[in-house]
Write a structure and sequence with these properties.
FAD/NAD(P)-binding domain; 2 domains
């Protein structure tokens, strides 16, 4: 019997260079989209590469509509492009008031149009449906990337590259120092879904008759650490229907992590941003793992819907409206940056001379929930996006450098936008001045960020 080889060798081939640009942003989630917009508005040529058919990442692809659900009366705003996402969505009819805060929930479908408009207005060159596959290197400097698509294998050259893949894909393959959370310690992945056919009057009456709080999150398999001030605040939390469904045999006993929050109850009968499915053990850098959990997540979502029909007032006629296009990943690789943010930084209002923006005291992950209700906030340092060992590269979004509790703050979409805008401006200044990223003039970066409406101190 012939032996199947472990590896094959690809023949050498020429790859067409299809574009050259000043700044290349890889990935268009909240971090990448903000980076591309910021760099373009700072006056350089920008190309934005995205593997899906829309911009917006977690907002549009996954269906995470709660962009700023941490916002309360005393919350200090970061401003900048993250705030603009919400304001533009409101103006374009793609946002509704959020259920547990003073923010607006972004419509995952409508935000595709918002993102399109922002990209077009900024003069960014859009490149959808292209998957990053390899960096192009000149020694220790990245000079572009290779992508693959229906058009085959192509090359894009750039003076500066921003990795906004969420998983530090570009940085890792370029040889930058990164680290990956062990799979058994990763925050759970989620399959988001939205419902139709809900009786709003009956549903809201049921919510008001049995209001849940953030202390309700500590139930079953979960124990949540708060600062205490969150405990009696209202939360759109659903757990009782699923506990009853397990008791009655509607949901198998081992699926005791089905629980979570809803986002908005629409007059149309749509109940959106159902964040109820939590999939421990899913590795967002392993396509086989993601395949298993995409399928498992949809199964669990349908069990959750059946439980809601049986045990939640107003949901008797509920039906699935849609799933997100892809599973939602919270935690994989992170940059081992020139400076890695710490738990102390995010808990104790970290301050940095190289700040590129602020973020309110919001921590959500690894069993910790702290909401910014007292005006406290931290700085986001530029050095947390600066890799070791690779030139011409910054990392923006949830893969910036930090320990696990720091990541529970910086992974959130609004903070990804803060980091992204800082990276985009730094890239533009670096191109204009001809300076390396590790020598970019921070006062110039900070002045341009302030000109773009960012609060940096």
């Amino acid at each position: 019997m012939p032996i199947t080889p472990t590896f094959i060798t690809e023949p050498a081939r020429q790859i067409e260079v299809i574009r050259q640009t000043d700044v290349l942003v890889v990935g268009s989630g909240p971090g990448g989209l903000a980076a591309a917009l910021a760099a373009a508005r700072a006056g350089v040529e920008v190309t934005l590469v995205e593997r899906f058919g829309c911009f917006g990442g977690n907002i549009t692809v996954v269906g995470v509509e709660g962009f700023a659900w941490y916002r309360h009366e005393a919350t200090v705003e970061a401003n900048g492009i993250g705030w603009e996402f919400e304001e533009r969505a409101k103006a374009m009819g793609a946002a509704v008031p959020e259920s547990q805060s003073l923010s607006y929930e972004l419509d995952s479908e409508g935000f595709k149009l918002v993102a399109d408009r922002l990209v077009e207005e900024a003069g960014i060159h859009p490149m959808l449906h292209r998957q990053f596959v390899a960096p192009l290197m000149n020694g220790d400097a990245i000079i572009g990337i290779v992508v693959e698509s229906k058009a085959g294998r192509e090359a894009i050259l750039a003076r500066r590259v921003i990795d906004a893949t969420g998983d530090a894909d570009v940085a890792t393959r370029a040889g930058a120092a990164t680290f990956k959370t062990p799979v058994e310690q990763m925050q759970a992945a989620s399959v988001m879904f939205h419902l139709a056919g809900v009786d709003k009057k009956k549903f809201m009456e049921g919510i008001r008759s049995d209001p849940q709080t953030y202390s309700s999150w500590s139930t079953g398999e979960w124990q949540i650490e708060t600062s205490g001030k969150e405990d009696e605040m209202f939360s759109p939390f659903l757990a009782k229907p699923f506990a009853q469904a397990i008791k009655d045999g509607v949901i198998p006993k081992h699926l005791n992590t089905i629980a979570g929050t809803w986002g908005a109850m629409h007059d149309s009968g749509e109940l959106t941003y159902m964040n109820l499915v939590h999939l421990a053990g899913c590795d967002g850098t392993d396509p086989d793992s993601m395949t298993i959990f995409e399928i498992e997540g949809r199964k669990q979502a349908m069990l959750a819907i059946e439980a809601l029909r049986r045990y939640t007032p107003g949901c008797e006629g509920a039906r699935l409206r849609n799933f997100g296009m892809s599973i939602g990943i919270r935690d994989t690789r992170k940059l081992d940056a020139v400076y890695n943010m710490t738990e102390s930084d995010v808990r104790n209002e970290g301050r940095f001379e190289d700040t590129i923006g602020i973020y309110p005291e919001f921590i959500d992950g690894y069993g910790v929930l702290i909401l910014p209700t007292t005006g406290r906030y931290m700085h986001v340092p530029y050095r947390s996006m600066l890799p070791k060992g690779v030139k011409n590269l910054l990392v923006a979004g949830r893969a910036i450098g930090g320990d696990r509790i720091a990541h529970a703050a910086t992974r959130n979409m609004a903070c990804c936008a803060v980091a992204g805008q800082g990276a985009g401006v730094a890239a533009a200044i670096s191109v204009k001045d001809g300076s390396d990223f590790d020598r970019v003039d921070m006062p110039s970066v900070q002045r341009e960020l302030e000109r773009q409406g960012v609060r940096i101190y």
